Amino acid sequence: MSESAKNGKALEYEIAKQLIDGGAIGLVSTIAYQARDRPHFATRPLHVRFRFVEAANVIVQWMTIESGGAVLTVRRMEDDSGDVADLVVGGAGSRITRCSIKHNHHALKHPRPYSLAQACGFPKESPEDLQQRIAMERAAKSFRAAASAAGHSRYRDVPDGKERLYRDVIEACADSISRWEEKRGCAAPLFQFLVGSGFKKLIVSPEPGGAIELQDFSSLVSPAKVAARRTTDPERLELSFNNHWVIHCRLHTAATEISTGSSQLSLKFDVQRVHGSVPTKRLA
Questions:
Q1: What is the pTM of this model?
Q2: Residue 113 burial (CB < 10 Å; 0-12/13-18/19+)?
Q3: For 52-56, what is the mean pLDDT?
């Protein structure tokens, strides 16, 4: 697990801990996640732990006000749930608050291009899914051949080949989305997958006493159309939705070594909002 991921788990841990210490009820799965992530919190540098305790205190006060003072239950969402929320807090007579917790970044999601069809609402192993995976394998085969011919096994050693790989993958994704959009429309499920709805995002800056930003995704308008294209930057796929949202998906490798054989290349998108209105305020 990366240090960034450990920081995220440690922050979620501290928020849930303060809620439970304050009388909230942790679900069984939440208690198990707390035990799992306690070492992540304990091994953070002292200044990071201090910041997480400080930020969690502000967030828990906000959650308590949101709930109207009712007794709360706390659920930490499963890692593979596919839900954008990290914490779900609520109780009898209170509003259910679904929260995405971010430490020092505004990324929306980190999807993989191989499973793009599922993000667009098509089942796994559907014709659309298979077509996308075939296009991905074609790009991967060409890249592996170029790397092998040059005698390299690391992405960084084949910068020209990596740039061609990114171009081929971005173009394959743009072509797939355009084709699916024309065939039956895929804007709504793709937007829901990348952005989500019905939740609130809390973004914690790392500096002591720094900002805690609250973004409200509770009532976003779902789009009916999407246009996809590769930007002049070969690493970026641009998605323009007709609800005035523009999203950039930056492709990058999630590994150092180039995988061999028929396994998938380790590729991910870093998804960022470029345009799109979200009600925002600062808690601190």
A1: 0.84
A2: buried
A3: 97
